[in-house]
Design goal:
Blueprint (H helix, E strand, L loop, with lengths): L7 E5 L4 E8 L2 E9 L1 H5 L6 H23 L8 E7 L3 H18 L3 E5 H7 L12 E6 L4 E8 L2 E7 L5 H11 L7 H8 L22 H13 L5 H27 L3 E5 L6 H14 L2 E3 L10 H13 L17
Parallel strand pairs: 1-4, 4-5, 6-9, 9-10
Antiparallel strand pairs: 1-2, 2-3, 6-7, 7-8
Helix pairs in contact: 2-3, 4-10, 5-7, 5-8, 6-8, 8-9
């Protein structure tokens, strides 16, 4: 596999983080993230219009910092990669508009990148791991999918959530426990001092590769409301145990169904310590190679967008001035 040889500026603005990075091949020279967490925390969740405005304010200084950290000038760039799907359309449009303008001014090519392809390739950042056929579990606030990765650009959805994503289940449960937003890390920390003593529904039964977390969220709400004297750490531990068990079970089932030799875990929820430990242990027990990115590349970041853009630019793919943004898009 060949990679784009010149430095690429990568931009990610799909949700509530403005990120810019400089990538050469699949190696990052910089990775700058301007988070909006504090702003959205007061509302208990992401407000799309506010997110878009914050991206407008952050995009230029974030790009400048990414170039400074990488120690290159904009005139040394050979291309630009930018997330254009899926995500909050207003947020995406800030990054895409900036990328179009900069590419035009510098007379260099640019490419629109699928956010989930970025996550899929995040495990291959800054290393020499061979990109081979494998099963990937993508888990984030908006996505829960099992993907058969046949090769670069060749993806088949094996299973997905039929309602809510696992990350959303974590965040909603955290809010019910009064842990605020975002709640994934806070819930994980609270769970470390508790015991998973409360049985919670695991959604779909039978030999399926799909997921369902809507009933789980309802059950957590009822549990929290049932008795104020219940141990919050025990409830948190039960929530984490149930979600990670479901994700682990489905992922291993997908690996078995394809007789795959490698499993990757990517996306924001891939930062969950228990999930990483469970999948790592089960894969080791079965002789399966387990891959997951470092914590800073689990959440939304521009490095992963740069890697996806690098190989697409290398095979002469280009986007034009008519590149649009989409809230939903098949992988």
């Amino acid at each position: 596999m060949t990679w784009f040889e010149s430095p690429i500026l990568a931009i990610e603005t799909s949700c509530d983080e403005t990120s810019a990075a400089v990538v050469v091949g699949r190696s990052s020279l910089s990775n700058v993230v301007a988070s909006q967490v504090e702003m959205h925390r007061k509302w208990g969740g992401i407000v799309p219009e506010a997110a878009a405005r914050a991206h407008v304010e952050s995009i230029l200084p974030t790009v400048k910092e990414a170039l400074e950290v990488a120690k290159i000038s904009k005139n040394e760039l050979g291309g630009i990669a930018v997330t254009n799907r899926p995500g909050l359309v207003g947020a995406l449009s800030v990054g895409v508009t900036f990328a179009k303008g900069m590419a035009y001014a510098l007379q260099i090519p640019f490419i629109g990148v699928h956010h989930l392809e970025g996550h899929l390739l995040s495990v291959f950042a800054n290393n020499e791991i061979t990109i081979e056929e494998h099963v990937a579990l993508i888990v984030s606030g908006g996505h829960t999918e099992l993907v058969h990765v046949r090769g670069l650009g060749e993806y088949e959805i094996l299973g997905q959530t039929i309602d809510d994503a696992a990350g959303e289940a974590f965040d909603k449960s955290a809010r019910l426990l009064g842990l605020g937003y975002p709640g994934g890390l806070a819930l994980q920390q609270l769970a470390e001092t508790g015991t998973p003593r409360h049985p919670l529904p695991k959604g779909l039964s039978g030999p399926t590769l799909d997921f369902s977390f809507s009933g789980f969220k309802t059950a957590v709400a009822r549990l929290v409301a049932s008795d104020s004297s219940l141990s919050r750490p025990d409830i948190a531990a039960s929530i984490q145990e149930t979600i990670t068990s479901v994700l682990t079970d489905r992922a291993l089932r997908a690996v078995d169904s394809l007789n795959a030799k490698t499993l990757s875990l990517v996306g924001g929820v891939a930062a969950n310590k228990m999930l990483r430990q469970k999948l790592s242990a089960e894969c080791a027990r079965s002789g399966i190679t387990f891959l997951t990115p470092p914590l800073n590349l689990c959440t939304d970041n521009a490095v992963m967008i740069g890697i996806a853009g690098s190989w697409r630019l290398a095979i002469e793919e280009r986007s034009g001035s008519d590149l649009d943004c989409f809230s939903m898009a098949d992988l």
